[in-house]
Amino acid sequence: NSAPGVALCLVCAMNIAVTSLYFDPKRAIAGAGGGGAAHQQRQGGVASAAAAAAAAPSGPPPLRLGIFTCYVCFFGTNLSVASLETVTPVVVQRLFGWGPCLDPATCPFEPAQTYVDLLMTTGGLLSLCMSVNMAVWLGAKVYGREIAALTFALIVYVITNASNVDWFGSLPAWRFTAGYLLGAFFGALMRGPNISLLSQIIGPHPKAQYMGKLFAVGAVPRIIGPFLYVKMLQIPESIQSADFPHVYEGPVPRTWLLY
């Protein structure tokens, strides 16, 4: 079913159109008047002053190592998100038999058919809770301590990834579920402090090009992540087979690098 992809394509096209229409600096400056010549002159003076300030930033240049570190952290965050969104349904289907029937017309209803939807929905709600928390309370507490927040979130990623490795040839459902939910919850903790830290490193210099590169770097793992992680589920070769009636029959994936 390619309908979700078509819908997202239309949404992205609408975003491009709206951005081009409403965020053109030249058009905004030219159309900001409307109140007479004096108003336009004041607006022109403000615009000229802003342009002069932007053209001659003060202070030392941004620390390249700091900018590179922010880019790497943002890349890793989005790679983890790609894993959460892509690999989770595949793993739970092939390891635990969760998910919809291959042929609903011949499949009796079982509670496990709803587990994937419940898991993904719960993960999305946890991510939303952390985002709201960052916006209304935790963001102010983290400000000035961005490195500590990023370090904590990365440690959580390491722990969840280690817990999801099938060290002894098996992975319990409770451990996988806990790792997924932790990853979804603390994933939102990475984005805000990362962008805040990058903004502070840039300082008084124009930030648009740095922020643009940040989001371009973050888009790469969202593209390559699904292909990469699904391939990794086949390395090393499976040592077990599964037979879940109406859901999946075949080799059990090896989990070693999920989040």
Count of strand segments: 2
**Residue-averaged pLDDT:** 80
Shape: globular
The percent range for helix content is 55-70%
Residue stretches low in confidence (pLDDT < 50, at least 5 long) are 31-42
> Biggest sheet: strands, sense, closure?
2 strands, antiparallel
**Taking Cα atoms only, what radius of gyration do you get, to the nearest Å?**
24 Å
Q: Give the helices and strands as they follow along the chain.
A: HHHHHHHHEE
Q: What fraction of the residues are assigned to beta strands by DSSP?
A: under 5%
DSSP summary: helix tally? 8
- Category by helix and strand content: mainly alpha
Summary of the model, kept short:
The chain has 8 helices and 2 strands. The chain has 259 residues and is mainly alpha-helical.
What does this structure look like?
The protein has helices at 3-22, 25-30, 37-55, 64-96, 115-142, 146-163, 173-202, 208-232, and strands at 241-244, 248-251. With 259 residues, it is mainly alpha-helical. It has a two-stranded antiparallel sheet. β1 and β2 form a beta hairpin.
Chart the SSEs and their pairings:
Blueprint: H1 3-22, H2 25-30, H3 37-55, H4 64-96, H5 115-142, H6 146-163, H7 173-202, H8 208-232, E1 241-244, E2 248-251
Antiparallel strand pairs: 1-2
Helix pairs in contact: 4-7, 4-8, 5-7, 6-7
Record keyword descriptors for this entry.
259 residues; mainly alpha; two-stranded antiparallel ribbon
